[in-house]
Structure formats: structure tokens, C-alpha cells
Amino acid sequence: MFSAQVTRYQQWPENAQAATYWIAADETQRNNLQFQTYADTVRAALGPTGLVEAHSEAQARFTVHIEYGSPREREWRQEFVDPYMYPGFYGPYVGFHHPRWAWGMGPAIQTVAVDVYRMTLSVRIDDRTQQGREVYRATAVASSRQDQLGAAMPYLARAIFDRFPGRNGQVVEVRYPVQ
């Protein structure tokens, strides 16, 4: 299962059915193949919302901005220690005293540092008919022990527009079966 947390804010206009949008690239995203691929994924996720892509930026009512990343962070997790590999588990005295187990044998838990990638997709939609006022902002975040932003992007984009536009200030957990 793919799991992500989505935070969204919206003041979606009522008269926006079948309105047009344009995905705008900032200076660092122009001529960037990764951005173009992720923009295609966002386009596919926008389809079910009823919005239609404009032929040019000038014809679009909404401007869509995309940001993404997968920064590596250090996280502390508790894990069971393998009893066969733990030193002293089967020593000369069965029933020795160990600070984690007390008397006798049992599972030991240790706290270890692990690297985690926070794969994120943020989408902001501005309404040009309201002087570029922001009308939708959502961020989807998923964690993984491996940097797999490309594989996660279709799920993150789907999560951003799941039950679009949603309630303002809403934080939801979404889960999708991985295909």
C-alpha cells in the first residue's frame, strides 16, 4: 500500500466547472525533463476534477504551480534485535541479567538511526480572474527508506486531487494499492 498525508487549503470558486488551467514552470523548471514528466503526472490527476488544459497561458483562468522534492532526513526508530545475533543472548548462563530483558530471555528493542526520504509534491492554483489570488494549495508527503520520487509521483498527484477541492484546512491520510 502507498500511504501519504495530504494537507490542503482552498477557497475554490463556485463557477469553475470546466475552467481552463496552465501549468507554469519557474526559471529552474524550464527545459527540465524531470519537471516535464511530473507536470504530465499532475495533468493526468487534474483530469477528473473537470478542469481543462488551455492551449496557451493567456487563455487559462487558473495557473498551476508545482514543487517537489525528496530530501533525506535522519529519523530514530525502535527495532527488535535479532536474538541469535545479539551478544550474550546464549551465554554460559541462561537466565543472566541484562538491562533490556531483566531476568530470563525475551526480545530486546534498540533505537537506531535510519535515513528516510520525505517525498513531497505541492500544488498551488491561482485564479487569474481574481488578480492571481491563490484558491488552492495542497501538499502530499510520503516517507520511504529509498529515494523513489519518480515511482511515488503518480500516487502523490492522485492524492493531491483526491476528493478535490476538499475542506479548507483539511489533513487526510490516503492509501492506494501499489500497482
From TrEMBL:
Domain DUF4136, residue spans: 6-166
InterPro entries reported in the protein's UniProt record: DUF4136 (IPR025411)
Gene3D superfamilies in the record: 3.30.160.670
Protein name as it appears in the record: DUF4136 domain-containing protein
